[in-house]
Amino acid sequence: MKAKIPVLLVCTVVCLQFGQAQEKLYPNEFSLGDVELLDGPFKDARDLNIEVLLKYDPDRLLAPYRKEAGLEPKAPAYPNWEGLDGHVGGHYLSAMAMNYASTGNMECKRRMDHIVAELKKCQDANTKNNQEWGKGYAGGFPNSAKLWSSFKKGDFKVYFSSWAPWYNLHKMYAGLRDAYIYGDNVMAKEIFLKFCDWGIELTDGLNEEQMQRMLDMEHGGINESYADAYQISGDEKYLKAAKRFSHKQVLDPLSQGIDNLDNKHANTQIPKFIGFDRIAELDDADKFEAASTYFWETVVNNRSLAFGGNSRKEHFPSVASSIDYVTEDDGPESCNSYNMLKLTEGLFRKFPNAKYADYYEKTLYNHILSTQHPEHGGYVYFTSARPRHYRVYSAPNEAMWCCVGTGMENHGKYNQFIYSHNQDALYVNLFISSELDWKEKGIKLKQETDFPNGETTRLTFTEGDANFELLIRYPGWVAKEAFKIRINGEEYEHAAIPSSYIPIARTWKKGDEVEISLPMKNHIERLPNIPQYVAFFHGPILLGAKTGTEDLKGLIADDSRFGQYAGGERLPLDQAPILIEDDLRTIADKLIPVQGKPLHHKLDVKMVNLQELELEPFYQIHDARYMMYWLTLSESGYKGYLDSLSNMEKKKIELERRTVDHVATGEQQPESDHYMEEAKSNSGNSHDDFWREARDEGYFSYKMATGSESNLNLLVRYWGFEWGQRKFDIYVDDEKLATVDNTKKYNISQFKQEMYPVPESLLEGKEFVRVKFIAHPNSTVSAVYDVRLVRPN
Description:
alpha+beta, 6-hairpin_glycosidase_sf
């Protein structure tokens, strides 16, 4: 097998100059320390994020690691999602390394070094105390001894009853790698490679079928970690492991151009493709390259919303269920976009195409930047696209969500993709105020801009002379022939088209100035598969509108299990502002600029449910309900559509108002949130919805909140046409609530809801109950699509 990477990139040199390890792993990227952010929104976000990060206690994040290693924790572990113990600790280590590399902040370095030193103690203790399974282990997963000792023997019972063990470990694999490549901590490299060796030894006895079955559970980007270990060390065993940790369920079809992503958990998939891309980058692996490039194309072009994010209720919808983007509260997760940008960087390294930079810019401004509160710095989990809904923010030391972990990193690497290089070519990818120190060429380049408030940027060579090709991105959002360049005052003629790079080859000298004009035009984007909903853009900037501040329940999340969900009332879709326009080709021209307020516009369009609204950059909208997508109907068709929409909305809103607690069965996060227990149970997706069933005395159960109410019903949704025996019991705690026989009961291909009144005696004095479905012998629990505790009508 012939590797694509030169020997220099895999050498095991220990003594590295500051920041050089990063370039050894990603050779076309500049080290974070070589690109300084100048005044502007990204520097502000980065600096605020450092303030927030320093409010966390590293010893609390380390507590799970010390506990599993048999060492006394120095501080109590964080609650909530640190029940997925250790996952945020890895993100935090990455964030410390990135911010140290970007700013030279010595407190970030001190914390990075402290965490690495503590992990070394944990790894050594695991090697000594857990010799059967723990040689080299540096994880903090709960009950590690029980889990990994049985796992090593091929017994997956504990593994499949746990919450995503490899996903958890991947965060610390990445944290240790980042402490080395960004922070030049050589001890982190040693721990990382020993941790990788642990994983190889642990899985050495598993056959291919067992490996693939193991990968059916969310496992983060473990294959990426092993590809990185290969590039860092040059040892082929890590490349082999990267391929063994690659999930064929998506690798095979996507490499053949087959999109099988419908109803799959979105952020389970994206890191796999980052790993596929890394394997393709380092090895002659056409299949991995085809899978990662096709995945990017179908997610970006077919499955992403206007702000660059993807998924609803954490899953990729089918075409038929895409309406969920606006009917459901739970829009794209921030961590999805974190990972999509990482995949985009990787693809750009091999194929420096402007389409990758266009997507990167769009998502960076409209999603990533928008997910940080500009005052207290809280992070966002879900960004809802539902008209007149809102977002919830985290608080330091509480709510250890996945998007808190990725949020810690997001704002520390804004300078990573502004510039890149390929031998003698320098790419200007983003228009962000910054200064580049290209040490290899002895060149310093300063970019000054107030973009997106203004439509120009200036590049000034402040040090050095060198001959190379400067490639400037011509964004896809600038009109044809409208992108202008002047070099030292003289116009530079070019024939480039939007979404391309303009190459300028010459000897650049100190004092040279390149002035760039990038006029922004208005345009719309339609909601994927639901063309009646449109979003407005000015250039790459998504425009939204604040619609009110009523009932922003849980705006800053507490440490509760469901604090990431916006608890305020859903406002009816049919009562949101609706645009009436017969010609959508011209609707973007009806944005009227507001004088003295850059990027603010009025909308000169006929509107049902008229409100005085002002459009502004979505990334600046906080602490408010908002419009991102607008239902846009023709003059002749809107009345009938609204009548139908109104009837559906009334039913949905009424059910939500009556609901005390709700489990979306078969979906990973809601089931985990409700502490599911199961045996002989399986889940799947049919009719664009998820379900769970159990067979032959098997069961599944959920811990559900009662709200301390005692007059409740259990509402269960089934599919009306099923085969075979469907006899089962429903229990509330240890008391049988109902015996159900759905065998040939409905015989119709429609969803059916059944209501089971819950006696007050089973609810009185209880904040929670466990609802359990148990199959009769030789029978199966009907596929359950939804479980709710609801108040009576």
